Amino acid sequence: MPDFTTFSVLFFTRKLNRNKKELSIYARITVNGKCSEMSLKRKTLVNEWDSSKGRLKGTSPRIKILNSYLDQVYSKLLDTQKKILDKDSLVTAEKVKSSYLGLDEEHKTLLEIIDYHNSTMQDVLKRGTLKNYNTTAKYLDEFLKKKKKTRDVYLKQIDYQFITEFEMFLRNYRAKKARKTCGTNGTMKHLERFKKMINLAIKLEWLDKNPFQNYKMKFEKNERQFLSERELKMVEETYFKNGSLERVKDMFLFSCYTGLTYGELKVLTKDHIVKGMDGKNWISTKREKTNEPVKAPLLHKADIILKKYQDKRIDLVSEYLFPVRSNQKMNEYVKKVMKASKVRKHITFHSARHTFATTVTLSNGVPIETVSKLLGHSKLSTTQIYARVMEHKVSNDITALEKRMAKKDRKNAEVLKVGNNQP
Asked: Contact at 8 Å (CB) between 337 and 238?
């Protein structure tokens, strides 16, 4: 470390070209005779500035606030110089300025945490989930370019205002290609992923303060669509001459009777079908989202569909049991299947899983704990989202309750009658 380092800070002004009555305030940092200057983005009138003191003259509230700000800048620059001295033998005016402005190499940027997150999570997150993070990153990139007029920002610059502005950008974003804007839940999902990346930055000690601390996520509760027992039967009884539609109908029904998601059905092989202790076919797999193991007997209707496609696979090379198309194409065909079956609901392929949870299991008296296990949920509270017990089930349960209560009343009345007849 050098034996002696000279350090000084001087505040001075420069005239503004457009206004001769106003001055722009600057700070000059000098270390060992070499200086670096920076604008403080503050202005004052010509007759208010005292060049000998490097402060404003007067006692008005505005002047007091500005002089107080200059004192704070001076103190922060001294602290910055001391921190550099404590860990580095070399102190320069440019290094003090850069560190003060947050431009030094120790301050990480938003793009750096995005790149770090997506690269380290490549083998941890599912392909679809990682794709969603990349989409969020693209939105952040567009936001920086269009609203912030920059390509990157330092993490320390991200605050509550940055988050709320990004939220409004997502809600109002219009892409070049015709597509829907983000709804409330879509917007919240992007912010949720953004928050997780910020939390990672905090764990890595790249960021001290959490800008999401006072920000509240506001998701809208959506009714999860599913088929009723009558609608499920309508789909089953509809036959399609079009082979593609008939296959999609079968795969949709198979998911209705197993609870498998699109991703799980797509990778289903003969190795996932095992013989259970009852001699029947069972599915032994892991849920795509939670990686929870699931082993459950196939319902008869699901088994019929499985055998139908096993017979068709005799000359096929593919190891997969079903000829699953892309998710987009499957949803497109499901829409046509519902229309032909006279089902007037917005049904997607994922609705089959909700149908399994509600119409097939819960409404038929299967305990929610069992349904949770079949769905591969790690928490019972997650299953409760699917727990849509139809009105007829509620009606049947209340009717059964009334019958039990009436029977108990009759029994009590008979006991009381016998007691009254005794001498």
From this structure: yes
Residue (of 372, 373, 334) closest to 350 by Cα position: 334
Find how far residue 298's CA is from the centre of its chain: 33
Superfamily of domain 229-389: Intergrase catalytic core (1.10.443.10)
H runs (alpha helix) in 237-286: 243-256, 262-266
pTM: 0.57
Helix, strand or coil for residue 360? helix
DSSP reduced 3-state for 269: strand
Instruction: State yes or no: pLDDT of 293 exceeds 70.
Output: yes
Q: State pLDDT tens for residues 330-356.
A: 999 999 999 999 999 999 999 999 999
Angle at 51 between CA 50 and CA 55, to 5 degrees: 50
First vs last C-alpha separation in the chain? 114
**Closest residue by Cα to residue 135 from 170, 162, 109, 93:** 170
Residue boundaries of the structural domains of the chain: 7-101, 110-203, 229-389
247 pLDDT band, cuts 50/70/90, is: very high
Spatial neighbors of 253 by CB under 8 A, at least 6 apart, are: 232, 235, 236, 301, 302, 305, 352
Handedness of CA 94, 100, 105, 111 (dihedral sign): negative
